[in-house]
Amino acid sequence: MTDSPEYKTIADFERAPDEYKMAVRKIVRSHAINELYGAQVFDEPAIELAPTPYAKWLTCRVAMEEYGHHVRFRELGLQIGLTDDEMSTKNKKPLSIFNYPLTKWEEFVTIKLLGDLAEILQVEDLLHCSFHPLRNLARSTMPEERFHADFGIQFGKELIGTAEGKAALQQAVDVYFPYLPAFFGAANSANNEMYRRLKIKIRKNEEMLEDYMGRARKAADTLGLSLPAAKQSAA
Ligand SMILES: [Fe+2]
Ligand SMILES: [Fe+2]
After folding, report:
1. Whose atoms come closest to the Cα of 67: which ligand?
2. Distance from the CA of 142 to the center of ligand 1, in angstroms?
3. How far apart are the first and last CA of the chain?
4. What percent of the chain has a predicted confidence (pLDDT) above 70?
5. If I label 75, which of 65, 121, 171, 231 is the partner at 20 to 30 A Cα–Cα?
6. Which residue segments constitute the domains of the chain, with CATH numbers given?
7. Ligand 1 centre and the CA of 119: distance in Å?
8. Quick check: 116 and 148 in contact, CB under 8 A?
9. Pick from 139, 148, 92, 98: nearest CA to 118
10. What pairs with residue 7 in β-bridges?
11. What's the CA-to-centroid distance between 201 and ligand 1, angstroms?
């Protein structure tokens, strides 16, 4: 189980087999792009939608951190042979959730509550990655991702204080949640099998999805919300 090699530095990475390099690049590229999409489509526009100066202040912090995640994944990407073009949102089809730009504050609270929870699971899966620079990056972004999910809980609690607020939050959950399970990829994915064989990632897509659904249900229960069914065709 533990006999596959570890790559502690960029110099070690350069000596890795081509398949390993390709697999790490795929993951770093996907994080660099998704962090940037998220910051552009959700976090930055949410500053304007935030209802109070306090909410704007914390939303600015979240936006800063999400852009920061992109910056750090991009830096690592450049070190391992990716180009800026490959990490640009212009050259990669987004996950479907990024096609629904925010119009309401409740939608942003939903994204942080349930979307960043999905991100936490993805980052957790890299905490023991055999490529140490990626493992270290995951470890350093984790506290911020936890803060984002907690931001969703805290502002969610504020919203459910009124019947209208709770209804608006439930409506946003109904719109956004169905797109989130697609974040975990397909069952029996060949890429996922490769990541696990190379000890880059630990869990199967389907295990992560099951765990996510349990944790999302718990977060929704905390706020007295219900979760709609996932979209079958979302990608
Ligand atoms: Fe992030
Ligand atoms: Fe986040």
Report:
1. 1
2. 8
3. 32
4. 96
5. 121
6. 10-222 (1.20.1260.10)
7. 7
8. yes
9. 148
10. 131
11. 18
CA of 141, nearest ligand number? 1
In the reported structure, the alpha carbon of residue 5 is separated from the centroid of ligand 1 by a whole-number distance in angstroms of 28
Ligand nearest to the CA of 59: 2
Coil, strand or helix at 100? coil
Nearest-CA neighbor of 183 among 161, 223, 211, 149? 211
Beta strands (DSSP E) in the chain are none
> Which ligand is located closest to the Cα atom of residue 42?
2
Residue at 27: amino acid letter: I
| Ligand minimally distant from the alpha carbon of residue 36 | 1
Answer whether residue 69 shows pLDDT above 80. yes
Q: Which residues lie across from 131 on neighbouring strands?
A: 7
Angle at 173 between CA 179 and CA 222, to 5 degrees: 120
Residue 199 DSSP SS3: coil
Q: To which H or E segment does residue 48 belong?
A: helix 44-49
The 10s digit of each residue's pLDDT in 130-151 is 999 999 999 999 999 999 999 9
Dist. CA 143 → ligand 2 center (Å): 10
Distance 163 CA to ligand 1 centre (A): 31
Cα separation, 62 vs 208, in Å, equals 25
Whole-angstrom Cα distance, residue 4 to residue 159? 49
| Tokens at 76, concatenated | 């690592």
